[in-house]
Amino acid sequence: MDQYLQAALEEAKKGYAEGGIPIGSVLVHQGKIIGRGHNKRVQEGSVVLHGEMDALENAGRQPASVYRECILYTTLSPCPMCSGTILLYGIPKVVIGENRTFMGEEELLRSRGVEVEVADSPECVQLMQKFISEKPELWNEDIGV
Fold first, then answer.
1. What distance in Å separates the CA atoms of residue 25 and residue 75, rounded to the nearest whole number?
2. Residues 38 and 51: beta-carbon distance below 8 Å
3. Pick from 41, 93, 107, 126: most CB atoms within 10 A?
């Protein structure tokens, strides 16, 4: 697992330790992490703070030129909201830890020219499977079931 996906996984573990949904993300610009975050829907009572959204929020406002040079790493396939944000800001590449426990809008991203790479990380799969088995109601709430 590369250092950036590892950083996203550390964020996911932080979220899990806080009693939240264990999905983490980092935004990387020219080899440097400029934003990191994890799903905080439970912790903050938020409807929008998925891991990717938290990482973008923590990167702060950036010029469009920066987003167009970024790679977003996320432990789980991005949902429609996060995928829309990736498209809105023109992020050209997304590296996904896993898409076995949840398949997001990868085809939408690809259809709009985003490079999508799936690492199929056993660590990311195991963390999500553990969480889903422990808190299925919370997981269903997060994905809108």
1. 6
2. yes
3. 41
Whole-angstrom distance, CA of residue 14 vs CA of residue 114: 28
- The string of pLDDT tens digits covering residues 31-43 is 999 999 999 999 9
**Segments in the chain forming alpha helices (H):** 3-17, 41-44, 51-59, 64-67, 80-88, 106-111, 122-134, 136-142
Of these residues, 11, 18, 52, 69, which one is catalytic? 52
pLDDT tens per residue, range 9-20 = 999 999 999 999
Overall pTM surpassing 0.85 (yes/no): yes
Phi, psi of 116 (to 5 degrees): -115, 125
In this structure, are strands 70-76 and 24-29 parallel, antiparallel, or unpaired? antiparallel
| Measured CA angle at 4 (ends 120, 57), to 5 deg | 110
Specify the residue for token string 């996320």.
74
Q: Report the C-alpha gap between 144 and 111 in whole angstroms.
A: 24
C-alpha 145/C-alpha 138 separation (Å) is 10
Active site (annotated) includes residue 52: yes
Calpha distance 145→125 (Å, rounded): 20
